[in-house]
């Protein structure tokens, strides 16, 4: 993300709190269906306004995929994670998009903050999916994006944040369960969420293979199920290398983002320095809060 801003930001009266992290392996997902996209973008050197709309089929496909995502995550991880989710539909349009060289146009948390911030404030959710249309790069007048269907490894206010791009027409099978074509239509959600676990694992200082390195370890996309076997071994530390088995550690499923509800019984941090037990958790909470603060700074800069 490129932000060009100059100036000085001042903060006063903020305190660092420590909280009690909720360490269950249940993750609450928020999936926001954006009914409308109405953005000005630049294409072929000219500014264009693009209006797009989710169809009823899009909404049904995402709803079915989220249900499948819930059971698949539990099954594929052999019970290491439990998924709860809410799907909400927003008729507030997406009116701005972010852009970079690698991905083209995409939606960052800041682009839809008016819609998602009130949900984040509830303190319930651990990860956010946003689903919308962007159209096809090859079609006149639609939004140029590079070749992605989901986009992950993003963060918004300390939460994992992923884009789910609906295909350009209802005849695409990417999100449709069909015994002859695709029996793993929730793959995009699985893939994008695993990017967040991949990133979290690295931030905790643990080793993990890169999610895109499946071929390096001998895994190919298969008919009907895509890279399901790879994800399964990735989630269970079951990828065989010459010396050991690798993947993401089981502990990562209990490391969820710090939420407002974690701070209900918070205390001033100077207390903790007298009782250093659990110091790693204290620090991870502090890091999360500092990250949130940086998100706020970024956001303020972006508005300037
Ligand atoms: Zn990816």
Helix content: 25-40%
Mean pLDDT: 82
List the strand order in the largest sheet: 5-2-8-10-9
* Biggest β-sheet description: 5 strands, mixed
Characterise this structure:
The protein folds into 2 domains: 24-258; 267-304, no CATH class. The chain is 28% helix and 23% strand. The chain contains 6 helices and 13 strands. The protein binds zinc ion. The site of zinc ion has 5 residues, from helix 3.
Give structural attributes.
304 residues; alpha/beta; 2 domains; five-stranded mixed beta sheet; two-stranded antiparallel ribbon; disordered C terminus; binds zinc ion
Give me a quick take on this structure.
By secondary structure, the protein is an alpha/beta fold.
List the topology elements:
Layout: E1 17-18, E2 26-34, E3 36-43, E4 46-53, H1 56-76, E5 82-90, E6 98-100, E7 104-106, H2 113-121, E8 127-133, E9 150-156, E10 159-166, H3 187-203, H4 228-235, E11 239-240, E12 245-246, E13 267-268, H5 269-272, H6 279-303
Parallel strand pairs: 2-5, 2-8, 8-10
Antiparallel strand pairs: 1-13, 3-4, 6-7, 9-10, 11-12
The structure holds zinc ion.
């Amino acid at each position: 993300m490129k932000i060009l801003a100059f100036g000085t930001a001042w903060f006063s009266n903020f305190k660092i709190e420590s909280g009690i992290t909720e360490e269950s392996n249940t993750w609450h997902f928020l999936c926001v269906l954006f009914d409308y996209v109405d953005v000005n973008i630049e294409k072929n050197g000219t500014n264009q306004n693009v209006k797009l709309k989710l169809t009823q089929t899009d909404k049904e496909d995402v709803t079915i995929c989220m249900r499948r995502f819930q059971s698949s995550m539990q099954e594929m991880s052999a019970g290491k994670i439990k998924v709860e989710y809410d799907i909400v539909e927003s008729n507030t349009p997406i009116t701005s998009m972010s852009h970079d060289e690698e991905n083209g146009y995409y939606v960052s948390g800041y682009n839809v903050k008016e819609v998602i911030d009130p949900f984040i404030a509830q303190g319930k959710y651990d990860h956010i999916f946003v689903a919308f249309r962007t159209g096809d790069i090859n079609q006149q007048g639609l939004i140029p994006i590079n070749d992605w269907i989901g986009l992950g490894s993003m963060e918004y206010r300390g939460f994992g944040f992923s884009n789910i791009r609906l295909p350009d027409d209802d005849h695409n099978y990417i999100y449709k369960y069909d015994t002859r074509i695709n029996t793993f239509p929730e793959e995009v959600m699985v893939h994008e969420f695993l990017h967040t676990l991949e990133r979290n694992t690295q931030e905790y200082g643990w080793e993990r293979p890169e999610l895109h390195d499946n071929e390096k370890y001998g895994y190919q996309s298969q008919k009907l199920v895509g890279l399901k076997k790879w994800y399964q071994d990735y989630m269970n530390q079951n990828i065989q290398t010459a010396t050991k088995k690798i993947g993401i550690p089981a502990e990562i499923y209990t490391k969820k983002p710090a939420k407002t509800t974690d701070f209900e019984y918070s205390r001033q941090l100077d207390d903790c320095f007298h009782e250093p037990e659990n110091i790693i958790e204290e620090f991870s909470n502090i890091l999360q809060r500092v990250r949130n603060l940086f998100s706020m700074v970024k956001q303020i800069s972006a508005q300037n």
